Amino acid sequence: MAANQPTLATATPSRFAPGRTRDIICLGRLAVDLYAQQIGARLEDVSSFAKYLGGSSANIAFGCARLGLASAMLARVGNDHMGRFLTETLALEGCDVSHTRVDTDRLTALVLLGLKDRDTFPLIFYRENCADMAIDESDFDEAFIASSKALLITGTHFSTERVNRASRRALDYARRNQVRTVLDIDYRPVLWGLTGKADGETRFIANESVTAHLQRILPLFDLVIGTEEEFRIAGGKHELVDALAMVRAVTSATLVVKRGPLGCTIVDGAVPASIDDAPTYRGVEVEVLNVLGAGDAFASGFLSEWLRDAPFERCAQTANICGALVVARHACAPAMPTPAEIAYFREAAAQDPARMRRPDRDAALSRLHRVSVKRTPRDEVLGFAFDHRNQFFELAQQTGADETRIAALKQLFVQAVALTEKSLALEGRIGVLIDDRYGQDALNAATGRGWWIGRPVELPGSLPLVFEHGRSIGTTLASWPREHVVKCLVQYHPDAPMDERIEQEAQLRALYDAAQASGHELLLEVIPPKRAALPDAPDTVYRALKRLYNLGIQPEWWKLAPMTAVQWQAIDALIAERDPYCRGVVLLGLSAGVEQLAEGFRAAAASTACKGFTVGRTIFHEPSRAWLAGEIGDDALIANVRERFETLIGAWRAARANATPHASTANSEAA
C-alpha cells in the first residue's frame, strides 16, 4: 500500500438519497460470452467453449448482486434461448430483471473469446443490430430510475444515436432525483467502428470524435471508472496526467483509475502534477490467467463498498481483491467472488501476500468460491429413487419382459412424479435418482423441471468401487447437465482392511476432484459392508464420514440409512463442525416397508442436516413387477407409484411437523 494513501475516515453523512429500494441500476451491454476452453490455442484452433453471462454492465450488475447489493439490469435480450439464459442467470444471483426487456426483432448479443497467452486475448463481438443496443426510452420511466441510489452506464451505450438517446434520458431522470451517476468508460474501439469487425482485442485507438463525445457526457457523472487507456481517450491526451486534467476540466466527478498490478488511483479533487502524488491503493499481485472481465469485477467491488458509504480506501481494497481474483480465473461473471471469498483473501494476503499470488491454487478459496455462491434452495428433498440397474434387470428376467421395456417404465415414473408435484404443490422440493443405463430418456424428461436430480456413477455392487463408465470420471461428467447431482454409492467401513480402505478412498478422492472441476454437486451414499470380520457399531457411519472429512472430501450431500435420534445428533454436530456449507443428508430406503421407513423418518425428524429422503424399491418394486408382467397398464402403474410415493411424503412431513430440531452439540461418543 502506498505511503501517501489516506487512512480510513470516520463516519460521514451518506452519499446517497434516503429511502431507495434499489442500490444500483446498470444500463448497458448484456451478452453471452463464449470462452475458449483450450488455453494457449489460437482462436482458430479452439475446439470447445464455455458459456457465461457477459457484457460489462451485466457483469457489474451480477457482481454487485453477488456482493449483496440490490442491483437491477436495464437492457434488452432477444426472444431466444440465450436471452433466457442471461435473465435467468441474473435473477438466480438476485439481480432485478424487471426492466430487462425482451426484443422480438433482434437476437441476443454474443462474444467469442480466446486465451492465447498472458498478453493475447482475441475476441470477436457479434453485435450487429443486437438486442441490447436497441434499448429505448420507452423501456423505463422516471420512477424506476428514481428508485435507486445510483445509475451506472457504460461507454458503449453512448456509441450510437439510439442508445445515446436512451442513456441521456436515464441520466436526466437520475439528475432530477438525486440518483448518483457512474460511468464505466468501457472503451472498445471496435464498438465505435474504429477497427475491423473481428478486432475486438484492440483496447485503444485515439479518436477525436470519441473524445469529444465522451467529454459532452462527462459533466453528467459523479463517479468515473476507467483504465489508463480509457482516461486517455476521455481526455484526448497521450500522457495520463494531461488526460486526467482535461477530464477534470469538464467534470467534478471522482475519478478512479485502474492501474493493473499497481492497484488503483483515486482523484477526488484537483489533478496533481504527477499521478503518483494522488492516493494510490496497491493490491496483491497475482499471476494472470485472463484479463477479460477483471475490470468489471473491480467496479463491482468498488461499488459494493461505495454504495455502503465506505471510505475510498476500503472501496479500493475490495475492488483490487475482486479484480485480482477474476484475473486469475477462467470466466468473468461466474468468477466474481462472494463476500466470504473476499474476507478469506483479505486475511490470507495480510498474513502472507506470496501465498495469494496463485489464488486459483488455494484449495480453501476454491472451495469457498464453489459453496458460498447463491444456489437453488433445497430445504426439503422428497425423492423417488429409480436409478437401480441390477434390480430392474432382475425384474425383467423374472417376468420374462424384454429388457428394453425398462426404459419405458422409467419414463412412466417421471410422469408419476410430475403428477405428484402438481397435485401436492411441491415445486422446488421434488427429487429423483435416475441412471443413464436404462433411464437416459427419463433423465432427459426430468431435466429442466427444477427437480433435484441425482445420477449414479458407480458400477452397482462394486467393491472396491468401480465407476460404471471407466476410470476417467472427469470425462464422464463433461457431458452431464450442470443441474445433475453426481451420486455415488460406496461400500465403506472405517475398520476395513487398509488396502481395501485406501482403494476406496483413492476412488472417492478422484471423484471428488472431478466434481470440483466440473462444477457438479456430489452426493455420497455411504453404506458399511456387512461382513463378520467388521464391527457393526452404532458409531460406524459417523466414523466413516469423519474419516472422509479428514481426507478433505466434502460432498454437498450425504445419503445415509435410517439411524437412531442420538446417532443423528452426532451426524448433525459433525457436519456443522466440518462443513457448514453442506447441503444436507437424504435418507435411503433399502426396500424397507412403509411403517419401518416412517419409524426412520421420526428418528431423523429432529435432525438439522437431514433434508428428506430418496426411496426406491419401497415405491417401485411391486408396481414394476406387475407392469413388466403385463398385469397392469400404464395408468395403473402411475397411480400405484404415486400412492406409495405420496404416502412416504405424508409420513415424512408428519414426522417433521412433530419434531423440534436439536442443538448440534453431540460428539462421537454420543453415536
Q: Can you identify the CATH class of the domain at 381-670? A: Alpha Beta
Structural class, judged by helices and strands?
A: alpha/beta
Which of globular, elongated, flat, extended, rod-shaped describes the shape? elongated
Cα-based radius of gyration, to the nearest Å: 28 Å
Q: Which sheet architecture does the biggest sheet show?
A: 9 strands, mixed
Cα-to-Cα separation, first versus last residue: 51 Å
Oligomer: single chain
Could you tell me the number of beta strands? Answer: 21
* CATH architectural name of the domain at 381-670: Alpha-Beta Barrel
Stated plainly, the CATH topology of the domain at 381-670 is called TIM Barrel
Q: How many H/I helical runs?
A: 21
Spatial order of the strands forming the largest sheet = 5-4-1-8-9-10-11-12-13
Overall pLDDT score = 92
Fourth-level CATH superfamily of the domain at 381-670: Aldolase class I
Our estimate of the beta-strand percent is 15-25%
Low-confidence stretches: 1-10, 664-671
Helix content: 25-40%
Task: Describe the overall structure.
It is a single chain. The chain is of the alpha/beta class. Helices cover 39% and strands 17% of the residues. The strands form three sheets. A nine-stranded mixed β-sheet has the order 5-4-1-8-9-10-11-12-13, sandwiched between helices. It has an eight-stranded parallel barrel with strand order 14-15-16-17-18-19-20-21, surrounded by six helices. A four-stranded mixed β-sheet has the order 3-2-6-7. α8 packs antiparallel against α9 and α17 packs parallel to α18.
